Every structure is written in C-alpha cells, then in structure tokens.
User: Fold these one by one.
Assistant:
Number 1:
Amino acid sequence: MNAKSVHKVIGIVLAIPLVAWSLTGIVFLVKPGYDGAYQLLSVKTYPLEHAFKIGPSREWHEARLLRTVLGYHLLAGDKANSIHLDPVNMQLKEAPSAADIKRLVEDAIGVNSERYGELVNVSGNKAKTSTGVEITLDWRTLSLAQSGRDTALIDNLYKVHYLQWLGRPLPDTIFGVLGIILLLSLTALGLVGFVGSKRK
C-alpha cells in the first residue's frame, strides 16, 4: 500500500473525529451560554454586626468570619483542610437541616431568578430548582456549586472534543493519543505527497 492509499484510509478513519473536533472547537471559541453554565454562585453575606474574640491557632493559615441568613460562621484552617466553626462558642458548626439549606440557597439564587427560578427540592446537601439547575452545598467551606442542563451539554462537548468516548480514563487516554498520532500521520503523509508531486 503506497503513501497515497494510506493517506486516504487514515482520512476516512479520521473523518468523524475531525468533524467533531471542528464543530466543538467552534463552540469553545464562541462560548455560547458559558456565562450561565459556569456562573459562580456564592452564599449571600450580610454586614457583621457583632464582634467575636477569635484566638490564634498554629493549625490555621487563614480565618474568615461571615454572616449569612443562618447567622455567623467562622471558616478557618487552610485551603486543603478547612473547618466550619460557630464563632460564638468556637465549636464545629452543625450541618444544616433541609429547611436551613433551603433558606441559604433561596437567599443565594435570588440574584438570578431567570437562571434559577424557584427552589423545588432539597435532598441531602443538594437542591434542585424549577429550571433544572442542581445546586450543591459544601458546608465545610460554605460554598455553592451549580450545574444545569447547559453545563452538562458543554461538558459532554468537551468529552467529544477530547475523544473521551469510552467513559473510562485509561481507554479514553489511549483513544485520544491514537487519534493524535493518526492526525499527525495524516499531515505527514499529505506533506510527503505534496513534495512528491512538486518533484514530478
């Protein structure tokens, strides 16, 4: 099989991945809907109205005092190991009830009712809105993460673009590397064919 035939076979094999790379690449350049899909959602905070005596600790690299609709919170420790304390008694702040999570999340999503709509369900540390957005509360860091249908769609486009088609890390990596090798081979064979035709 000569170089021209090999080039043709590789081109046929790569037809679908090349189309997928091209179309998803356009989406990543234009980024339609990214603002909402990956919007940062934070708990709503209020001005501090009380002072607290917070002693130093060698185990803490940082400390943040916040006030939310649920009261006061002291987040201390470091980025890898944060703890959530009650600044009144310096004890670990108990995990919130479903009703408290509802209050906290409803207070946060009020900034963008068009995206989040209304809160319809709370299960564990997750809340679901009327627009299909799922919100996850990390009580340890008092942070929120949101993910909607648009987020899932864009995440799936990334998987298509990077040839993560098999659903398992190792096979996906092998598949991706193989795709890149074939693409480089296609380019090299094309250059060889071009140089050969010029010589003729």
Number 2:
Amino acid sequence: MKNSGYMKDALILFVITLISGLLLGGAYQLTKEPIEKANLAANLSAYQTVFPEAADFQIPDDAEDAMESCNAELASGKFGNTGVEQVLQAVDEGGNVAGHVLTSYSEDSYSGRIRLSVGINADGSISGVEILEINDTPGLGLKAAEPEFKNQYVGKNAESLTVIKSGSAGDAEINSISGATITSSAVTNAVNAALYYVHNYIKQ
C-alpha cells in the first residue's frame, strides 16, 4: 500500500513536470519572435550605420543553429573569448541580400565585455563597425568608439585581422590605440568572430 502511494506521487510529479516543460516551451516559442524584433528595432540605428546601403534587415532561418556551431568553434580560443550574438541579412531595395550585419563580442577588453555591430558586404569586405557596449577608460580604451580607430576596419577584406602597435597597417592589419592595446585587440577579435561566421557559415 505504501509503495503504491509512492508510485502515485511519482506519477503526479512526472505529469506536473511534463506539463510545466510543455508550457515553458510554448511560452519560449511565443515570445522568441517578438524579442528578436525588439532587439532589431533597438539596434536599428547601429545596423544602418554599419550598412547604410541596406533597405531592410532580416533574420535568416538557419542563423540560430549556425551561431551555436560557430560559437562552439570560437570557444577553442583562436580569437580569445569571443562569440556571435546575432546575424542579419542586409537586403537592398530589390530584395537581394547585399551582405550581413552581425552582433559580436569579446570578453577580453580592458574592462570586460565589448559588443560590436559589424557590417560585411557580399564580397567579404567590411562596410562598417559600430560599438554597442564598452566600459573602458575614457581617453584610452574608449577611443575605440571614435571614427579615427573604428574606420580603419572599413574596406578590409580578409578572413581575419591582426593588431600592430605602429607603422603603416597592411590589408589585414589594424593600428592599435596608443596605450590601449588590450582594447584594440578585443575589438579586432570581436570583428574576427564576425568574419569567421561569414567565411564559414554563409554560402557565397
């Protein structure tokens, strides 16, 4: 009799857990699209800054699975602690995909996380970089948000970029901010994470 009571309690607990799981899954599916649209609207200005030729920005159907795979590979540490948070197609007036806008990040900046919006044309060249989040030192790391630094990325067409401390930067090189090499490298590696996704997860 005692055992049957345990079995009954276990069955009730199982049913409650199952129903709760189904309800949570349903709630996620219902809220997923509105959340994605809200994030898109909140960052629209940055997207337009890094890809001004785009008439619209759309979420690809396969982006979520591709980002998961990409981030697992980036976790190997090739570009430090980096990842990709969002991928959008940049669509022109005719409805053609002209390139992509990605939100990427690095955890290795001087004061922690830095998040970027990176525009990449269909030919693989960078159309723009905009800082979404940075907490670095004013006059040093915060210079990463200034045009003099971030505009260096525009037009670069390489699978990855490296930071140099001084001199004339080559096609795959970025000049560091004086006194802020750590931040310069973090920004560049966040850009590299976006480039990695484009070169490995977008069919050309």
